[in-house]
Design goal:
seven-stranded mixed β-sheet; 6 helices; six-stranded parallel β-sheet; disordered N terminus; 27% strand
């Protein structure tokens, strides 16, 4: 039967956003499949059964794009692409530590809320909304594959929502449940500190989850937790760390361990790498398939993974997303929203591997519809690409990516406004963003270099940034090169005089 909904607090105002969110959640509200304990062959891949469908749920402040390389790893093992699922959560930010008195519930998207009492608006998805999003994605995968059960791999706080989903009855639809980098023990230890928050171990949410071991309905659901010994946002060295205007004692790496479940601890991997790295794959694949991964005959060149093989003709597509809860309206906020942007222009250019300059005319061009989707287009192996994105109310952004070894429908293009990055109309020079989709641009275990120099703003610190902003007073066009291991992104800067900026974006 469908997952029962929990009672919610009354909201003061409902926004007329159903149309926007229905596009994001389209296809998610499927008729539930009927689970069957007799069909245990769906629980793992065997020589006579199709591999179990896998639903990947990203964590806070992220998108489905973070799973791109993990899907490539599974595909390279022969896992059918049509049995691998990842979607971007609308309004993926954490709830604020200080709750505003007034909240606006977003019509058509339960649990997704906008604060209205403190400008600028801030949008987020609460614990109930995240749990419901997981339920929707599970039902979508069941309907698409005809399977009776699926596996769910959830990163960060989504792992807590996965536990809540199972507690509320969703376990009947699952064969495997994996939490990766999830703070099961909370993220701070101060009694009375923000106890309403998802990450407060003394609050009702985590207390309720941790009062009993993870549920295993009908004995068919298997659990696994994956963590790291490295310090990071949820595991910091002993001492005091500022959280907003308060000071809290943080947890240790043991926060990632789920009591009552097998646990894999990755040595010195960053918090995001607990979900999106070779080491994470080496823990996930045997758990989900019952066998170790087989090394591909030849790993794809230019990648930091020995588990990814190359495709002859990668097909690329994705979504253009805006900012704020109404992407077309700057007054709706400038936060990360994962909401589709209609009317965006997308042009794709092949770029030179040294200069970053365009090699001829656009190889693909389109204008997005209401769903924000672009593509597909056929990429050439070994070729890096520039994605030029513009839309009414946004400035032009040039996003550079390294060569794609395999196909992906998760190439998310973020439209940008220069003033969000502190650039005024009188500023001159150039603005470059360095970005890692995995979310650990400053991971000292996997250092990143920019134009030959190590790129970081917080060396040795426990807080990892997903991106760095580089402003230059000069607008002279220069080649730029962002490198992590074997992956290299090549592009060049653009002058602010033309209201343009650029992004160098690593696959992970």
């Amino acid at each position: 039967m469908p997952l029962p909904s929990l009672p919610r607090s009354p909201r003061l105002l409902h926004l007329a956003l159903a149309a926007v969110f229905s596009l994001v959640l389209a296809g998610c509200l499927q008729t539930p499949s009927t689970p069957s304990t007799a069909r245990s062959k769906d629980l793992a891949a065997t020589p006579t059964a199709a591999p179990v469908p896998i639903v990947f749920i990203h964590g806070e402040n992220s998108s489905a794009a973070q799973w791109q390389t993990m899907l490539w790893r599974f595909e390279s093992q022969g896992w059918p692409r049509e049995r691998l699922f990842a979607a971007s959560l609308p309004l993926p930010l954490l709830p604020p530590t200080q709750r505003a008195e007034e909240r606006i519930n977003v019509a058509g998207a339960p649990g997704m809320q906008i604060t209205s009492s403190a400008p600028p608006p801030y949008g987020y998805t609460d614990a109930d909304g995240l749990r419901d999003f997981i339920a929707q994605q599970v039902q979508q995968a069941l309907a698409a594959t005809g399977a009776h059960r699926v596996a769910v791999v959830a990163q960060g706080r989504s792992g807590l929502a996965l536990r809540d989903y199972v507690r509320q009855g969703g376990g009947q639809y699952l064969s495997h449940a994996v939490t990766a980098g999830t703070p099961h023990a909370g993220a701070w230890k101060t009694e009375g500190l923000y106890e309403h928050h998802d990450f407060a171990p003394t609050g009702p949410y985590l207390r309720g989850l941790n009062q009993q071991p993870p549920a295993q309905p009908d004995g068919l659901l298997r659990w696994l937790s994956v963590g790291t010994t490295a310090m990071g946002p949820y595991a910091m060295p002993p001492g005091n760390w500022t959280l907003g205007e308060a000071v809290a004692a943080r947890q240790t790496p043991a926060t990632f361990r789920l009591a009552g479940a097998p646990h894999v601890e990755l040595a010195q991997a960053s918090y995001p790498a607990a979900a999106s790295s070779d080491a994470a794959f080496e823990a996930l694949f045997p758990f989900l398939s019952g066998k170790p991964p087989a090394a591909p005959a030849a790993a794809a060149p230019g990648q930091n993974s020995r588990w990814i093989s190359a495709e002859a003709q990668p097909q690329l597509s994705g979504t253009v997303v805006g900012r704020g809860h109404i992407p077309s309206d700057p007054a709706s906020g400038h936060f990360l929203s994962n909401l589709p942007l209609a009317g965006a222009s997308v042009q794709v250019f092949a770029v030179h591997a040294v200069s970053g300059q365009r090699q001829g005319a656009a190889v693909y061009a389109t204008t997005t519809g209401a769903d924000g989707r672009w593509g597909p287009f056929s990429a050439q192996p070994g070729i890096g690409y520039e994605f030029e994105v513009g839309a009414p109310g946004y400035d032009l952004v040039h996003i550079y990516r390294a060569p794609f070894p395999r196909s992906s429908a998760l190439v998310q293009l973020q439209a940008e406004r220069l003033f969000v990055w502190g650039i005024g109309s009188d500023d001159r020079g150039s603005l470059t963003l360095l970005r890692a989709l995995r979310g650990d641009l400053e991971d000292m275990q996997a250092p990143v270099s920019f134009n030959g120099q190590q790129a970081h703003s917080n060396p040795g610190g426990p807080l990892l940034r997903q991106q760095l902003k580089l402003f230059s007073e000069s607008d002279a066009i220069q080649p730029q090169r962002l490198v992590r291991g074997q992956e290299a992104v090549v592009g060049h800067n653009w002058s602010l005089d033309a209201a343009r900026m650029n992004v160098l974006e690593l696959h992970e």
